[in-house]
């Protein structure tokens, strides 16, 4: 390197700093995310400095307090009008603070809190060497079946790192639906995905299956992330910016000051179409839409059940939030291009999920396919491209997340000698042995099936109505048909539980601690309240249904 | 004064609530509570009656509005009561006869451990029946209509441990249901035609609707009346209903509930007046039933079933009269009231006989009881004379008027209907004389019977606890039972004359039902004479058959007609063949269609989806590489489709 070149570098670096404005960050408006991230960092410190015995309690306490505080912050922001009149874009255009963002953040935080309760449950597994244990491996790093694993179990270790991981994931999910530029979107995606990959791998029982699930999830997630990133690059090439607002302007053709350096590619529709398709594909992977759904059953089955419940609920909320913002803020001008494609995706997702679920024999896989079918139903609302479409999707997501966490919490209760008894045949006659647990699970299944007086019906009705008003009547017809198919396998489980003879060597139902009981009770309460008196929450979602641009 | 109307219903309703909810604590006094509240209702009825008499004939309609019951847009129904001359007549009949039968039941049910419940049901019946006749709109009437149906069901099956009683209750309930459907359809038609249920507007504007609609409404109302009043073709339940305790048979299945159909027709007079075709059907139903019941009554050896046939026949007279229009309405109600007296009295007499005969109901095992039960004999005898229409007694006045009115219908119809009514009078005289002779005269067939009928002993409480095969010791019933019988006998003797002198009843009821004198081809005297001839003939034939000759203890085979009548003219066989078999065939064919066609489609669809599911499932092979390929393919398709959309 020549001296001149070095000099030039020096001088460049020594340019007056005043040229770069200090970013203006609205800390107050970002407080929900910041609280959760802060608590996650505290959790890491706890792992480092608090003695092993106290970690569990410290982690649970910190996590619960942080989630409650963050939820309070969301409520305060919404009460302050940030969801409606004062909605704007914060953090130098990176994060939106508006109705959908706050509504979804609130939903994610509540789902996270209920999920935390299931994470912290320590009474289901029999005590190992006098130590109460949760659903997570004693030492995730030890090889399954090895001596070091046995030693860890004997020593009563537990993986308390799951709590900061959970908080990191929640933090990423909070940003995801609020992200207002493509880079923030991608960072948020990775921030919540990486902890989830890890969490999938740390099951206490069936560890090989758990690790296999984690690896599959990671590989396919990375694959999908690559598509997403490629799409982002193409969109940048198209618009010369990663900001949602700027891209939308270019799509609409209302852009004024064109950067001469980008004039060659800017406005090239091939880049736009390719880029948006790949970006949408990345989000469809996260919501588990066909044909990007293949990871779902394997991961749902292999992951520790509390993780599955949390992931199934919160990931879906966050990813649908991001998808809504992308389609409603960035690509509304492209509506006539993406709508037919999304129609097709919604139809094959609804039908595919419902049909393949029919022949499932494992309750967790069954619920996985059910979640795929539900992704299809929600997509029908997304496609409505109206305010009603947004609010119906918000409502659906809120109702669905509580049902899902509650259902997986019940799945964790039904156990035999090998841990959770997830094979459907073992659930025969459960209603005779444990009528209450079976009845609660039946409520969740009815909600999944969309039977009136449950949140599932109210949500499905809202979504289908929005879709029909938006001109997607054939989609609604397919949706109702898929619901009919789906009702078959939900009701089949109910029939199995209540009208079959119990097996002599059948599973037992563990008596949970108040934590899981709370999670299930919240699920049932939310299901019934949203089902019997949905109007207040529909109004709330309706108020929150406008994106800031 | 209007305020008192609700109390009429409230008193027995309170009784029913107290007795049915009160539990065993009330076992010792329950029957007196029931009787007291029933009597209270009667006293209130008398007060209201006195109040009505004090008014001009035009102002004798009292309306009491309690609250709005169903306020939905134009669908308005109120809880409003209407007390006019027609409902007043029914109120006095229901509460008066009802109170007497309550009193009678105190003695009759003395040994039944579920007596408290029995009185609770009786009070419930009174409340429902009063609601039925006091309601000011059809919807509220329907409530009472169903209420009496319920009470009837509960009381027929009161001895539910007897399978026959349980079956009879079910049968009555089901057959009544057919009629109830008719009533509900009629109410719906009324609402669509007039936009309201209230009697006032409906009946005032009845003429404004098209005749076709009115005929439909009237026929549906007639169907309802047939069910409740046991008219052909819905008559089959009444005979079996005699499985209930005898006071129930007297009150519900003779004096009051079964006449609700007549009330319905007379109340809806304006509708029927405007639908002559429906009126003709009403008269035909009445005439057929009066002969049907009479013929059945001739052949029955069971004293209660003979009386049940007679009830059916007498209600046939009432329906016939009601179908004649303004000529007959007043006489239908008059016969209804006199029949309430004498038929209740006859049933109570029958109950008294059974009470003294170890609950034996077979008249072939009676005989010569007049000396053992003098009070029963005299009261039953007076009721007998009243029903056959012995000159000067109740039945004479009321039935004679109906026969006259039937002839006054005019034309061939008039001759046929009048002839049927006359023939009915003759048969009535025959079968009632037969009952009388077989029970109270002739040799004492209950003595030293060589064989007892294989029938299981009836579970009615026996006054004397004797061995099953012991010879009965006929005896007079206690005072608490005989006093009601005496009161009713007095009514049977003087009621008709009291009503007819100076046309008292006619003037009383005319403002409500309207009245027109018929144009009879025969003079009144001719008709009365013909009726007398029929009466004498009927009595004479009966005397020849059962008075002169000893009555065989085992029924002879009898003629074809007798055998048919014993089987209720094959009513149950007909129902079985037409309805049960037909229903079974229909069900079977529907099941067949369901199994082959519906299930085929359903199962085929299910199998199709199942197969599809199994095939799609194989795509999920567990290899991450396959999943990645699927994702890649999906992404390629997504991109291609998006680009294609733009190209198109």
TrEMBL record, chain A:
Enzyme class: translocase
Keyword Lipid biosynthesis applies: no
Entry EC no(s): 7.1.1.-
Keywords of the record: Cell membrane, Membrane, NAD, Oxidoreductase, Quinone, Translocase, Transmembrane, Transmembrane helix, Transport
Primary site of residence: membrane
Subcellular localization, as worded in the UniProt entry: Cell membrane; Endomembrane system; Membrane
InterPro entries (UniProt xref): NADH-Q_OxRdtase_suN/2 (IPR010096), ND/Mrp_TM (IPR001750)
Keyword Iron: no
Ranges of residues in domain NADH:quinone oxidoreductase/Mrp antiporter transmembrane: 179-485
Stretches that traverse the bilayer: 30-50, 57-79, 99-120, 162-179, 185-203, 215-239, 270-295, 307-328, 340-359, 366-387, 393-414, 435-453, 473-499, 511-533
GO MF term (any one): oxidoreductase activity
One Pfam family, short name: Proton_antipo_M
Topology of the protein relative to the lipid bilayer: Multi-pass membrane protein
Catalysed transformations (reactions): a quinone + NADH + 5 H(+)(in) = a quinol + NAD(+) + 4 H(+)(out)
HAMAP family attached to this UniProt entry: NDH1_NuoN_1 (MF_00445)
Alphabetical list of PANTHER family matching this protein: NADH DEHYDROGENASE
Function recorded in the entry: NDH-1 shuttles electrons from NADH, via FMN and iron-sulfur (Fe-S) centers, to quinones in the respiratory chain. The immediate electron acceptor for the enzyme in this species is believed to be a menaquinone. Couples the redox reaction to proton translocation (for every two electrons transferred, four hydrogen ions are translocated across the cytoplasmic membrane), and thus conserves the redox energy in a proton gradient.
NCBIfam families (UniProt xref): NDH_I_N, PRK05777.1-4
Oligomer and partners: NDH-1 is composed of 14 different subunits. Subunits NuoA, H, J, K, L, M, N constitute the membrane sector of the complex.
Family of this protein: Belongs to the complex I subunit 2 family.
Full protein name: NADH-quinone oxidoreductase subunit N
Organismal lineage: Bacteria, Bacillati, Actinomycetota, Actinomycetes, Kitasatosporales
Gene that this sequence comes from: nuoN
UniProtKB/TrEMBL annotation, chain B:
The organism's place on the tree of life at top rank: Bacteria
Localization terms from the record: Endomembrane system; Membrane
Protein keywords: Membrane, Transmembrane, Transmembrane helix
Domain annotation NADH:quinone oxidoreductase/Mrp antiporter transmembrane: ranges: 135-417
Compositional bias annotation for Basic and acidic residues: 462-476
Stored InterPro entries: NADHpl_OxRdtase_5_subgr, ND/Mrp_TM, NU5C-like, Proton_antipo_N
Keyword presence, Membrane: yes
Membrane topology: Multi-pass membrane protein
NADH-Ubiquinone oxidoreductase (complex I) chain 5 N-terminal domain span: 69-119
Pfam families the record matches: Proton_antipo_M, Proton_antipo_N
Ranges that cross the membrane: 32-54, 89-106, 118-135, 141-160, 181-202, 246-266, 278-299, 315-334, 369-394, 414-437, 483-502, 522-544, 627-645
Protein name per the record: NADH-quinone oxidoreductase subunit L
Species, as recorded: Streptomyces pyxinicus
